[in-house]
Amino acid sequence: MKTEAGNYEVLFGTNRILKCGRVVEIAEKGLNKQFVRFREGEDRKILFECTVTDEKGDTVVKVANSRVQHAAPGYKAEISDTAIKVINEATGDVWLEFASIGPRSFKLNGIFFLPGYRIIATDRGLDVNSNLLVGNTFVNCAAAIGLRSGGFSLG
User: What is the rounded (10 degree) CA torsion for 74, 80, 84, 89?
Assistant: First the structure.
């Protein structure tokens, strides 16, 4: 079952994403990928899917159907009914934080390495390759953040 874009909202860092089809989209020749997805399950509950990799492209954590499927050695997953947090045990850095903050509202923070990009989302803002985005609202867009080799676009 496909989720309509207006069925949920995401707080990404301090930026609100409302009625957008995708949080982040990588669109390059031969590559059209979302590293984070939301979809509606059979029970109409929104399910979260995400794959977080390190700088080398090795998988740190994989989440499918709002459940941690894999966490790499050296990373600890803290899981509750409404949240997932994955922490690097050596540094204490939060690599993924996903939490339900309302019936169809979610918080997403973490460290995300994508081809040519480093995105760090925290409660202080969203850093995209050293460009800080704070307090923006993206509404009715195909993708809140579009990543391309020449730079990124918003909304």
Answer: -20
CB distance 59 to 52 below 8 Å: yes
Model pLDDT for residues 28-42, shown as the tens digit of each residue: 655 546 778 888 888
On whether the CB atoms of residues 14 and 124 are closer than 8 A, the answer is: yes
The whole-number pLDDT of residue 3 equals: 47
pTM of the prediction?
Answer: 0.88
Angle value at C-alpha 83, between 91 and 41, nearest 5 degrees: 135
pLDDT of 64 > 90? The answer is yes
- Using DSSP's 3-state secondary structure scheme, residue 7 falls into helix
pLDDT at residue 5 above 50?
no
Cβ–Cβ contacts within 10 Å for residue 47, how many? 17
- How many structural domains are present in the chain? 1
Provide the domain limits for residue 17: 5-154
Beta strands in the chain (DSSP E): 9-12, 15-18, 22-28, 31-33, 36-40, 46-53, 59-64, 67-71, 75-79, 83-88, 94-102, 105-114, 117-122, 125-128, 131-133, 137-139, 143-148, 151-154
